[in-house]
């Protein structure tokens, strides 16, 4: 998948206005009515990028590596038309035809734990998931093979019946769902024995999950149409996989970089040395420059975590911890003392407070009449 920021030609920290301006410019340029039919795919890609990055929640999910759709969510864009909206407010009283037996299946949420090295390069994991699938015997029809649904005698296949009632306002006629067929207009005279007439059965299925390089802790991946099958042959919901990353004993993640600490003898820090480090990319030689100070960082370029949505990687940063020996024999102590004398380091001389240029020094000088 293309990097949406690159598609719009903006930086990853672009403001909403910058994203909007970039989209308007590209949309005018790539619209098929202007650029011809050959630009249709590019126009769709630009529009998809804008729809994601202009929505704060979708943009947040995209930046974290997950899908831009919410778990089990639906907005006004999911309403089919005015009749659907009307039914949302007024219930089933407007039913004018049979209700389809098939209903959408629910979304499924599961979790997946991966190691840090799998996050670095990306991986494919196989999960066994408890779910509902379309009945293999009746294929979602709910009927015993060789049979079929029968028209409901109570409603004549309409799925609804009219009822007359008297009230203070006079005689009224209302249309309500048929209770004999639950509004479907048909009944199942011979339900499938395997699924009990539900059109689906519960089982365990194996799914191959592609985990992209650079994914972060807690991100949910979405697999459209891979959730539970709907009853009565209805469409399946979506499958969401929440990713968790195991802690590593040597390396920690910091953004797209990997960070670790190595303990270096004092002599190696002074004189310089080369050692080997077992990284996720194999054994690497690391050079410690002479005169390395405690806390110095050595960087190995391109050995960090894969950058999400890009063909690049962060760095491996190695923090140096200099180990000072605690116990010296007489010979070792003599050598160190000789070294100190040769450098003039026999005494520790901290900077005196009255020699500094701090606040209190300046105040004291001011009251003493000194500039």
Strand content: 25-35%
Q: Give the helices and strands as they follow along the chain.
A: HHHHHHEHEEEEEEEEEEHEEEEHH
User: How are the strands of the largest sheet arranged?
Assistant: 10-11-15-14
Question: What's the average pLDDT?
Answer: 84
Number of helices: 10
The coarse overall form would be elongated
State the low-pLDDT regions, or none. Answer: 69-94
Described by its quaternary structure, the protein is single chain
Rg measurement, Å: 35 Å
Structural class of the helix and strand makeup? alpha+beta
Describe the structure.
Zn(2+) 2 binds at residues 152, 155, 178, 181. By secondary structure, the protein is of the alpha+beta class. The chain has ten helices and 15 strands. Helix 2 packs antiparallel against helix 4 (40-53). The longest helix has 15 residues, at 16-30.
Topology overview:
Elements: H1 4-8, H2 16-30, H3 32-35, H4 40-53, H5 56-64, H6 82-90, E1 108-114, H7 116-121, E2 123-134, E3 150-151, E4 160-167, E5 170-177, E6 186-187, E7 200-211, E8 220-223, E9 239-245, E10 252-254, E11 257-265, H8 266-271, E12 273-279, E13 282-288, E14 297-300, E15 316-323, H9 330-343, H10 359-367
Parallel strand pairs: 1-9, 11-15
Antiparallel strand pairs: 2-7, 3-6, 4-5, 8-9, 10-11, 12-13, 14-15
Helix pairs in contact: 2-4
